[in-house]
Specification:
The complex is a heterodimer of chains A (287) and B (592).
Chain A lengths: L1 H39 L1 H4 L30 H36 L3 H15 L2 H12 L3 H11 L2 H14 L3 H8 L4 H37 L10 H10 L8 H4 L1 H25 L4
Chain B lengths: L1 H43 L38 E6 L17 H8 L4 E3 L5 E3 L2 E6 L5 E6 L13 H13 L5 H5 L3 E8 L2 E6 L6 H6 L7 H4 L21 E7 L3 E6 L12 E6 L3 H9 L5 E2 L5 H8 L4 E6 L5 E5 L9 H10 L2 H8 L4 E3 L23 H10 L12 E2 L2 E2 L1 E7 L3 H15 L4 E7 L1 H8 L13 E4 L3 H5 L4 H5 L16 H12 L3 H18 L3 E6 L1 E6 L17 H4 L7
Parallel strand pairs in B: 1-10, 1-11, 17-18, 17-19
Antiparallel strand pairs in B: 2-3, 4-5, 5-7, 6-7, 8-9, 9-10, 12-21, 13-19, 13-20, 14-20, 15-16
Helix pairs in contact in B: 9-11, 16-17
Classes of the chains: A mainly alpha (287), B alpha+beta (592).
């Protein structure tokens, strides 16, 4: 009785463990799906062109302008809908950049762990040790304001973590029997890496990628809010930047000018983070 | 067990539902936000027409306001001491002529303790102050000053011509630089005739000596300063800030506060405010929050346009607006194609909807720019210069007539076979200027000129427009948003600096502009003794600028200051300088 009871409980716990990530993953997918849908269909969803001055500045919400207008009379709702494009784009592209760098460094460092690998990993350590946000701000200020620079700066700073994760996977892969067998039969390193190593890091890389997107969206918002992005470009961060410089944080306008973009940044980041969490559970359930 | 499981599932589902509702977000959440928030915001909505606050009545001061907790609003006839608490956003050092920090409001606080020979009146025109009369020779090189008799410093010592001569000598010979050394640059000699008569002999004619020097530099006492060698180390310590002004600094807490006591023996009469406490805040937001909650009674900084109506709507706060001579303008490199063609410059001028800039970006708290550079509220403004020149149809006709046609039909005109497509460089740190740049892009698009805003750091921007702060280094931009600080315009005799084609005279000529008649007028202006004649010359120069357009002036931001009218309401707005001056704190009868 006791034995079978505890067994059943253990089994149930296992099932619950395996279901929770799925549910969260689905939730993440729904959030991200909705946001991507908004971004792609922005011209149809947005009631106005966000660069048209269609009404008086600083209007509170009304039937025509559900979130009111900003400091020069752009419709805030349209601005936020279009803003999803920039925020998601920066998130996805910057994470791709980070992943390309991270995977390459991780695979090379893991496959040649001695001199080359340890040199590379010291570089990764340096990136990880550097105070992150100040470095990001300095780089962004130095490179100047443009969408491309924002993407590059973020991408160049968040690749170190994926590199570490992938290297540890590669370290274990390279001593697997089938890899050893391939190498002992004279397979060149390039072939071994492409045929046996890289495909087996793909899942792990996907998890890192999704997590990187979540981080990159937050970073883009932070940079734009600080005025280090392109303030003319409509993104959630730049909406917050203008809200801040035109005093919306001190007036009732925060409810329609600050809260919505803030919530959307949170949601986007949360959505990707949930997907990443669920993917990680699947890839490596012992985590 | 089964029930617990179901409960957990329910909780999970609720969470999930919340997340999904959340991501339907915007649309779902707006409605409640709209209804709850609409009410307070309607009252706060900007109404540009409403902002010219009438000058506060002196009687306002006596009205007890229900919300205020200050000790001063007593209606009883034996007046209780009036204490005004003012907010500034940054420490200003120990407020001696060598240790104050910013030009505004540091210099203004400094001048509460000291006096200058002349003092700007509300219109911004210098009037005799420590001087009872100022006379200038016909060749503008000898300025004779008669002092008011019986003026004493805070320690009781009399102020005489000896102190005036000493002040000039101290500022010009002390190795440490100061604003006042610049004021008296070009003074060849100071001749002391007797205790109350002194003559400044200048190396060359300077019609603006009264504004730049006599109304700017504080007179310091010889008996305090003659033993001082390094004035920057001569910090406030009880006896150092001895001046002749209406206030004495009695307490200074680094980065926190200043306390000024009224000088009851002030030669123009005892100040209306008995004690002035200046509190240092970290930023604008802090200062605004403080005046909302009644912690301070006035902010000694301009408030941004979007705050004007919000603060004014709150009782007992009032906002006072007035002209400032700062500028927002468009610069272009007039030495390169196509901006060397006056038709292009005129078209750009005609395409600018100046009223739109004022209403949209400044919410009405600015004055529409005169194409002739001088502020319409300025004493030398030429009323023949129209400011309502917006006419995009005329601009299009002008460009069409000058041969800038859109031959390939893409909506962008061409010049010399290239599209009229340019970058507008601006400094990203000035958010209002950035918005002006965005609006400029729209307005230029309407006349077939395609532009793109390039927001950069201030250093990059300055280096493109004014490399090394030396016009001899040329220019590195096509179109730039620009603006000069108030002194450049407040003193109209500086106009040649902006437009003279010779770069040592036109050392602020950032657009590479040149016009022979303008050069002649500039030179005539510098030696013209008769003020009326100078005004006529300046009037003609404004006409040339409005027609020839070395730059396109868009607007002059107004100064706006907020104060608590239940505590003190007699603030005087000096054109171009704002309310932070001794005039504001003296009884109206003592003002010039």
């Amino acid at each position: 009785m006791t034995a079978s009871g505890s067994e059943r409980r253990a089994a149930r716990r296992m099932r619950r463990r395996s279901r929770l990530p799925t549910i969260l993953g689905v939730a993440g997918l729904v959030i991200v799906g909705a946001l991507v849908f908004t971004a792609v269909l922005a011209p149809w969803l947005a009631p106005y062109d966000p660069t048209d001055r269609i009404a008086r500045p600083f209007l509170p919400p009304s039937a025509e302008h559900l979130l009111g207008t900003n400091d020069v009379g752009h419709d805030l709702l349209s601005e936020i809908i279009y803003g999803s494009r920039v925020s998601l784009l920066v998130g996805l592209v910057a994470a791709t950049v980070a992943l390309l760098i991270g995977t390459s460094v991780g695979v090379v460092a893991g496959y040649y762990p001695k001199r080359l690998g340890s040199t590379l990993m010291r570089g990764v350590d340096v990136i990880l040790i550097l105070p992150f946000l100040p470095l990001l701000i300095v780089l962004a200020a130095y490179l100047g304001r443009s969408l491309l620079n924002t993407i590059l700066v973020i991408g160049l700073l968040i690749w170190a973590e994926p590199a570490r994760i992938i290297r540890s996977q590669v370290l274990s892969l390279r001593s697997r029997e089938y890899v050893l067998a391939a190498r002992s039969m004279g397979a060149p390193d390039r072939w071994t890496i492409l045929r046996h190593i890289v495909p087996r890091t793909a899942l792990l890389a996907t998890g890192s990628f999704v997590r990187a997107v979540s981080g990159a969206i937050l970073l883009e918002a932070a940079l734009s809010f600080l005025g280090l992005g392109d303030p003319i470009q409509k993104s959630w961060g730049s909406t917050l930047y203008w809200a801040q410089t035109r005093g919306a944080f001190l007036t009732p306008a925060w409810k329609w000018w600050v809260l919505p973009p803030g919530l959307l940044i949170m949601l986007a980041s949360l959505g990707f983070a949930l997907i990443a969490f669920s993917l990680e559970e699947r890839i490596n359930p012992r985590l | 067990m089964q029930r617990i499981k179901r409960l957990k599932w329910t909780v999970l589902l609720v969470v999930l539902a919340l997340v999904i509702v959340g991501c339907g977000d915007g649309d779902a959440e707006e409605e409640p936000a709209a209804t709850t928030a609409a009410a307070p915001a309607t009252t706060a909505a900007p109404e540009p027409g409403d902002q010219e606050e009438p000058a506060p009545e002196p009687g306002d001061q006596e009205e007890p306001a229900p919300e205020t907790t200050t000790t001063t609003a007593a209606p009883a006839p034996p007046p209780e001491p009036v204490t005004v608490r003012a907010a500034v956003t940054g420490d200003e050092g120990t407020l001696t002529p060598y240790t104050y920090i910013s030009g505004f409001p540091g210099w203004n606080l400094l001048m509460l303790q000291y006096d200058s020979l002349m003092q700007l009146d509300a219109a911004g025109v210098p009037q005799p102050w420590l001087a009872s009369s100022v006379n200038v020779s016909d060749d503008l090189t000898e300025w004779s000053v008669t002092l008011v008799e019986g003026v004493t410093f805070h320690d009781g010592e009399p102020l005489t011509s000896d102190d005036v001569a000493f002040s000039v000598e101290f500022y010009t010979t002390n190795p440490e630089a100061s604003r006042f050394a610049r004021d008296f640059r070009g003074v060849a000699d100071v001749v002391v005739h007797d205790d109350y008569n002194v003559t400044f002999v200048l190396e060359s004619a300077n019609p603006g000596f009264d504004v730049v020097a006599l109304a700017d530099a504080p007179i310091i006492p010889r008996h305090i300063w003659e033993s001082v060698e390094l004035p920057s180390e001569h910090q406030f310590a009880g006896g150092t800030n001895i001046g002749s002004g209406p206030y004495m600094l009695t307490e200074y807490v680094d980065s926190q506060s200043y306390r000024f006591a009224a000088n009851p023996n002030y030669f123009r009469g005892a100040p209306a405010v008995d004690e002035l406490v200046v509190i240092v805040f970290a930023d604008d937001a802090g200062a605004q929050a403080a005046i909302r909650t009644g912690e301070v009674d006035v902010i000694f900084e301009r408030i941004p346009p979007e705050q004007i109506d919000l603060l004014d709507a709150q009782d007992p706060l009032d906002v006072i607006l007035g002209p400032e001579f700062a500028t927002q303008m468009i610069n272009y490199d007039a030495s390169i194609r196509p901006f060397d063609d006056v038709a292009v410059r005129q078209a750009i001028n005609l395409a600018m909807d100046r009223q739109d800039f004022v209403d949209t970006v400044y919410l009405g708290a600015a004055t529409v720019g005169s194409p002739g550079w001088i502020h319409p509220g300025h004493s030398v403004y030429n009323p023949g210069i129209a400011t309502d020149v917006y006419d995009p149809a005329a601009a299009n006709a002008l460009l069409e007539g000058a041969g800038y046609a859109d031959t390939d039909g893409d909506g962008v005109r061409e010049f010399d076979g290239q599209p009229m497509s340019f970058e507008i460089i601006t400094n990203a740190s000035d958010s209002l200027r950035l918005r002006i740049a965005e609006l400029t892009v729209e307005m230029l698009a309407a006349i077939g000129i395609e532009t793109e805003v390039l927001p950069v750091d201030t250093g990059v921007w300055e280096n493109a427009v004014w490399p090394g702060f030396d016009v001899n280094n040329g220019r590195n931009y096509q179109i730039a948003m620009w603006g000069w600080s108030p002194p450049v315009q407040a003193d109209p005799l500086r106009l040649p600096w902006l437009v003279h084609s010779s770069l040592d005279r036109g050392f602020l000529n950032l657009t590479g502009y040149g016009n022979a008649e303008m050069d002649e007028l500039s030179e005539a202006l510098a030696v013209e003794p008769d003020p009326a004649e100078r005004k006529a010359i300046l009037g003609r120069m404004q006409e040339i600028i409005a027609e020839d357009l070395p730059f396109v002036l868009l607007l002059y931001p107004d100064g706006a200051y907020v104060y608590d009218s239940s505590v003190y309401a007699d603030w005087e707005f000096i054109a171009g300088q704002g309310i932070v001056s001794k005039l504001s704190l003296l009884p109206p009868s003592a003002r010039p």
